[in-house]
């Protein structure tokens, strides 16, 4: 059987011809995971992972959790990151980063 | 005042003395005692006479009292003679009651004219005001006299006669119940003790009634039991208890504790005495579902102390042993088939619930016993054993507390129930022969059944893990039978109390799939490449989907490799602050395979695709294992597993790849083992070769890699450790200070919806938290813990 297979090899040199007749892709379902591009997985203010909604949002959400993606992450100039919800409450008390004590100013917001 | 008028008064006074007045008072008094007619004038004169004697004769009042007493005693003695003239008991009772009723009526009349006497007698002895409600002296005199003479003399005969009548009634003879009631009334009314009006009644009538009842049944009850056996006896006891209660209501004083005392006595002599004999029948009756008899037994046992708890124990024992025996008998089937296993469990549940309903009317105590025993059956590990590793792994990322403790284990075997429940759920929710066969309502009711059993599962975290893995597969492979039912299930899980953070993550998964659909739409609109039409991207929230499994690198077919940066670029424009990681072990696709036999669509994993595409450059070559490794860049274990699925797929008559030398396991592949494409490949259906067709080689889509799979069970232990730590911190944060016992209770309460932490695990985590200065022991009490901020 191996010999008979060899006989047919010469049939095509170009890729196109071969793929048409051999394994061709019909459909591909690719899976990727996104996560916040952060140095520390956990929000230092509420101690919940930043990929999860903050404690307050989790408590409020229950059923209307669906459609909500509000609980985003915020990065300070110091590059430390927290839940936006947590940080906006924090700065009302103390306008410094809870981790490095630098004055807090937003570098960017997650979206 | 003048001397003459004083003298006149003194003379009058003599006239108003006791000696002067009594002769005209006495006949009226005697008439009153005999209940004979007294004229208005006589009645009023009596009042006046008493008034005068009390006013003018210093020694008058005590004399009046004593003489009155003699007359009363005389009268009573006569009455006693009239009563005792009767020998026959009923006649005696009748005569006594007649005399008593007459006398008692007079007790209400005779005292009235002597009010003045009351005050004079009282005024001398005491200054304090007498209680209005208190008996009058004359009335007391009358009743005491009756009590001392006639009653004292014949009370035993009265009582005995009354009890004889009651006994006759118990034996089915009829008589005038007024006789017994009359005797009782005389006992009650005789009492002049104002503090305790029922004293005479209680000490005599009630005591003797209860004693007679007890004696009666002390003989009857054992007779009945030995003659007819327990079952008939229970009916007898029940009937007699009811009968005696009604009888007591008739003959004993209402509004007193009498009826209750009598009932207690009956319960004691009819039921408590034979408690163990009756209870001995309970296990057999439960076994044979003799619900009527059990109902009766519960009715009786509910009335004696500690009567029901042995029945509860019997029920528990029965459910546990019958349940386990039933599972064991079918062990071959149910260990292989999650559907059969779950149906069997449900069948048991229904059987036991029916028993509890029919025999015990869903009495909460028996429901609790059922739950306790059923929980035992569900969580029993003898039928299945899921061994959790003793050693700890490193499976979990991003713990709340950054450093992991290393000294914990929980290596007890666990029931496989949660895993099988999750599998069964998957069969119902996925497109399977089972789900296709069932109607929507049937599926819903079966899912509800799963939730019912789930309530009893101790390690719900294991269920959660498997359920999530199945859901992940269904969503990624798009194999859900009904997406509405899928989302309902999430809410039902929430309703049965699964932890909110878990349920929220499931909900998030559905949301992610929808978001991804929109994203694909937008991407296809802006990407011109023709390949875009055949590619579908799912970009998912790592927090909700990924379980910390490491990713596997693979060299993708070129056309796909080129496509990936485009997607990333597009995503970056839409979102910021996010990073993407490709999970190729989860991705999959369909390829078309053409050979001389025909044209076939094959569903493959991306790893399988990467391996097969290696032949696109050289369709007829034999490629060595080593070269395939270089071409795909897959790690050794993944490549072996993938190749094995292509050359030894269980359901296929003709395999896609051929191999030499032939091997029996993927471990036997050597560097120079050679693989080539089977150009004779075709789908075989009913023994016939098909020219067209579709097959699925994906099998169980990998959600984790070979290595992390090994760590799966370890990760459960790891996760439990973290949950315990989190919970301890949470409790201490709130309480600040807490003792060990209280901490354990609250901990179990928080965690019970996931798993039951072992004492050992709790202890180890406390030690670890102390060591890492999250908490400390109290200075004065080593069993109290203090939160450290
Ligand atoms: Zn936070
Ligand atoms: Zn939030
Ligand atoms: Zn900072």
TrEMBL record, chain A:
Localisation per UniProt entry = Cytoplasm; Nucleus
Keywords, A to Z?
Answer: Cytoplasm, Metal-binding, Nucleus, Ubl conjugation pathway, Zinc, Zinc-finger
Q: Which Pfam families match?
A: zf-rbx1
**InterPro entries per UniProt:** RING-box_E3_Ubiquitin_Ligase, Znf_RING, Znf_RING/FYVE/PHD, Znf_RING_H2
Residues annotated as domain RING-type = 54-101
Pathway this chain belongs to: Protein modification; protein ubiquitination
Concerning PROSITE patterns, the annotation shows: ZF_RING_2 (PS50089)
| Family classification | Belongs to the RING-box family.
Q: What is the protein named?
A: RING-box protein 2
Organism name: Neodiprion lecontei
UniProtKB/TrEMBL annotation, chain B:
InterPro entries to which the protein is assigned, alphabetical:
Cullin (IPR045093), Cullin-like_AB (IPR059120), Cullin_CS (IPR016157), Cullin_homology (IPR016158), Cullin_homology_sf (IPR036317), Cullin_N (IPR001373), Cullin_neddylation_domain (IPR019559), Cullin_repeat-like_dom_sf (IPR016159)
Q: Part of which pathway?
A: Protein modification; protein ubiquitination
Q: What residues does the Cullin family profile domain cover?
A: 416-647
Q: Name one GO biological process term.
A: ubiquitin-dependent protein catabolic process
Gene3D superfamilies named in the record: Cullin Repeats (1.20.1310.10), Cullin, Chain C, Domain 2 (3.30.230.130), Winged helix-like DNA-binding domain superfamily/Winged helix DNA-binding domain (1.10.10.10)
Q: What is its main location?
A: nucleus
GO cellular component terms listed in the entry, alphabetical order? cullin-RING ubiquitin ligase complex; nucleus
Concerning its family, UniProt says:
Belongs to the cullin family.
Protein's name according to its UniProt entry: Cullin-5
Please report the organism this UniProt entry assigns to the protein: Neodiprion lecontei
Q: What is the lineage of its organism?
A: Eukaryota, Metazoa, Ecdysozoa, Arthropoda, Hexapoda
**What gene name is listed for this protein?**
LOC107220880
């Amino acid at each position: 059987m191996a010999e008979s297979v060899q006989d047919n090899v010469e049939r095509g040199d170009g890729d196109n011809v071969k793929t048409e007749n051999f394994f061709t892709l019909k459909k591909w379902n690719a899976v990727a995971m996104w996560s916040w591009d952060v140095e520390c997985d956990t929000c230092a203010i509420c101690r919940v992972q930043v990929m999860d909604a903050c404690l307050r949002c989790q408590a409020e959400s229950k059923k209307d959790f669906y459609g909500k993606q509000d609980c985003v992450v915020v990065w300070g100039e110091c590059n430390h990151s927290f839940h936006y919800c947590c940080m906006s409450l924090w700065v009302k008390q103390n306008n410094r980063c809870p981790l490095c004590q630098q004055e807090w100013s937003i570098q960017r917001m997650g979206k | 005042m003048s001397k003459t008028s004083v003298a006149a008064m003194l003379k009058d006074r003599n006239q108003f003395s006791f000696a002067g007045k009594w002769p005209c008072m006495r006949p009226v008094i005697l008439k009153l005692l005999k209940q004979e007619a007294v004229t208005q004038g006589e009645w009023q004169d009596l009042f006046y006479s008493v008034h005068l004697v009390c006013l003018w004769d210093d020694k008058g009042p005590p004399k009046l009292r004593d003489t009155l007493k003699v007359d009363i005693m005389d009268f009573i003695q006569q009455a006693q003679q009239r009563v005792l003239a009767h020998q026959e008991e009923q006649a005696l009772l009748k005569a006594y009651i007649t005399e008593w009723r007459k006398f008692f009526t007079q007790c209400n009349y005779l005292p009235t004219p002597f009010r003045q006497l009351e005050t004079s007698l009282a005024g001398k002895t005491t200054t304090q005001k007498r209680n209005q409600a208190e008996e009058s002296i004359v009335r007391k005199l009358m009743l005491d006299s009756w009590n001392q003479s006639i009653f004292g003399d014949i009370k035993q005969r009265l009582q005995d006669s009354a009890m004889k009548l009651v006994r006759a009634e118990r034996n089915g003879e009829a008589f005038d119940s007024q006789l017994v009631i009359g005797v009782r009334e005389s006992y009650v009314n005789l009492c002049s003790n104002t503090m305790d009006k029922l004293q005479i009644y209680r000490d005599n009538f009630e005591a003797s009634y209860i004693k007679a009842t007890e004696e009666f049944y002390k003989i009857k009850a054992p007779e009945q039991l030995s003659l007819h056996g327990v079952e008939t006896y229970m009916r007898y006891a029940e009937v007699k208890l009811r009968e005696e209660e009604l009888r007591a209501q008739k003959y004993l004083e209402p509004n007193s504790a009498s009826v209750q005392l009598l009932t207690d006595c009956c319960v004691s002599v009819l039921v408590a005495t034979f408690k163990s004999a009756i209870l001995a029948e309970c296990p057999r009756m439960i076994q044979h579902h003799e619900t009527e008899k059990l109902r009766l037994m519960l009715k009786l046992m509910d009335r004696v102390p500690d009567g029901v708890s042995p029945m509860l124990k019997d029920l528990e024992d029965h459910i546990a042993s019958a349940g386990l025996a039933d599972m064991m008998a079918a062990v071959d089937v149910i260990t292989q088939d999650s559907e059969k296993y779950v149906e069997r469990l449900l069948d048991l549940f229904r059987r036991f619930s029916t028993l509890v309903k029919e025999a015990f009317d869903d009495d909460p105590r028996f429901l609790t016993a059922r739950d306790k025993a059923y929980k035992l059956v569900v969580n029993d590990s003898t039928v299945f054993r899921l061994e959790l590793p003793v050693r700890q792994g490193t499976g979990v990322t991003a713990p709340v507390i950054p450093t992991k403790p290393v000294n914990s284990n929980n290596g007890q075997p666990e029931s496989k129930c949660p895993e099988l429940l999750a599998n069964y759920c998957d069969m119902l929710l996925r497109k399977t022969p089972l789900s296709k066969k069932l109607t929507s309502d049937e599926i819903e009711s079966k899912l509800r059944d799963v939730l019912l059993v789930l309530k009893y599962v101790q390690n719900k975290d294991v269920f959660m893990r498997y359920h999530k893995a199945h859901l992940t597969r269904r969503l990624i492979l798009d194999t859900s039978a009904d997406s509405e039912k899928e989302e309902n299930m999430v809410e039902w899980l929430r309703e049965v109390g699964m932890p909110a953070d878990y349920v929220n993550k499931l909900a998030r998964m559905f949301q992610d799939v929808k978001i991804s659909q929109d994203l694909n739409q937008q991407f296809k609109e802006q990407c011109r490449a023709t390949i875009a039409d055949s590619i579908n991207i799912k970009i998912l929230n790592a927090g909700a989907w990924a379980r910390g499994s490491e990713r596997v690198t693979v060299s993708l077919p070129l056309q796909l490799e080129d496509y990936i940066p485009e997607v990333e670029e597009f995503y970056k424009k839409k979102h910021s602050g996010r990073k993407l990681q490709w999970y190729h072990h989860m991705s999959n696709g369909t390829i078309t395979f053409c050979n001389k036999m025909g044209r076939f669509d094959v569903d493959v994993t991306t790893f399988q695709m990467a391996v097969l595409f290696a032949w696109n450059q050289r369709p007829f070559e034999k490629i060595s294992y080593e070269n395939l490794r270089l071409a795909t860049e897959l790690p050794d274990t993944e490549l072996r597993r993938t190749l094995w699925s292509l050359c030894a797929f269980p359901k296929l008559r003709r395999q896609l790849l051929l191999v030499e030398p032939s091997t029996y396991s993927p471990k036997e592949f050597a560097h120079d083992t050679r693989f080539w494409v089977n150009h004779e490949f075709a789908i075989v259906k009913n023994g016939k070769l098909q020219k067209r067709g579709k097959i699925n080689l994906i099998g169980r889509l990998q959600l984790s890699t070979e290595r992390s799979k090994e760590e799966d069970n370890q990760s459960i232990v790891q996760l439990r450790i973290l949950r315990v730590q989190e919970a301890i911190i949470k409790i201490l944060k709130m309480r600040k200070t807490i003792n060990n016992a209280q901490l354990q209770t609250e901990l179990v309460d928080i965690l019970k919806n996931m798993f039951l932490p072992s004492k050992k695990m709790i202890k180890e985590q406390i030690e670890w938290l102390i060591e890492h200065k999250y908490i400390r022991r109290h200075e004065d009490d080593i069993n109290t813990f203090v939160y450290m901020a």
